[in-house]
Write a structure and sequence with these properties.
Distance between the termini: 45 Å
Low-confidence stretches: none
Structural class: alpha/beta
Helix content: 25-40%
Order of helices and strands: HEHEEEHEHHHHEHE
Largest sheet: 7 strands, mixed
Number of strands: 7
Radius of gyration: 18 Å
Strand content: 15-25%
Shape: globular
């Protein structure tokens, strides 16, 4: 099983818990080449579609950016999993998400708060990188950080700036400006790339060892009228 599939399997319970009853209409922003949660949502009776420039081919998937996707009708739910920190214009994407939702519709966000990825958390993660098998993004960061000769914080901020990433706290502020917050919490994030480290293992280290939870879970509803 790939790290991506381990991630989707681990986060499906959270997404499923906040979906309204089927057959609600659901759109996933940034479903990726695997289709994100769309297959699982369809299995559970939801009318789910995925939007991503690298979405799978086939019915229900749209190979385009969400900002350019034309909806035929509003949806009941939008799911965004580790996609918002990558978008070019966060405000534009969230404005379109609010427009795409029915009044009272649900927004489910699974994100990464990269600003919480401090050196202690990085070292804990790098110490647990698998020696064989799939080499993922954490392997690359470990190698690039060592090669840079920079302090970790300088390396991380430089990389995030070059990639144009949005901070988790900035994502939350932008969400709160347009939606009614129902839930906001941090969670383990790195375990899928550290197999056989489990989510419980990472949570235990967060609780006992002082590493930081960099995952971000956020659930909100679209108000009947614009906020502010």
């Amino acid at each position: 099983m790939t790290a991506k599939q381990r991630w989707l399997d681990a986060r499906w319970a959270f997404v499923r818990a906040h979906l309204p009853p089927a057959p609600a209409r659901v759109l996933e922003i940034g479903c990726g080449p695997e289709g994100g949660f769309v297959p699982a949502m369809r299995e559970h009776g939801f009318a789910a579609v995925g939007v991503d420039p690298v979405a799978p081919s086939g019915p229900g998937y749209h190979r385009t950016e969400f900002e350019k996707h034309q909806l035929s009708e509003p949806v009941d739910v939008i799911v965004a999993c580790t996609s918002l920190h990558h978008v070019t214009d966060l405000d534009e994407v969230l404005a379109r998400a609010a427009e795409a939702l029915t009044p009272g519709g649900v927004l489910i966000v699974v994100e990464w708060a990269y600003e919480r990825f401090d050196e202690a958390t990085a070292r804990w993660s790098f110490d647990r990188l698998p020696d064989s098998g799939e080499r993922g993004w954490l392997h690359s960061h470990h190698e690039q950080w060592l090669a840079s000769g920079q302090p970790w914080d300088d390396y991380l901020e430089g990389w995030a700036g070059r990639e144009g990433l949005h901070r988790g706290d900035a994502i939350c502020r932008a969400l709160q400006a347009r939606f009614h917050t129902r839930l906001r919490t941090h969670a383990p994030y790195f375990f899928p790339d550290l197999h056989p480290v489990s989510e419980a293992d990472e949570q235990a280290a967060i609780t006992a060892d002082g590493i930081r939870a960099t995952g971000l879970h956020y659930v909100a509803t679209r108000p009947a009228a614009a906020l502010g």
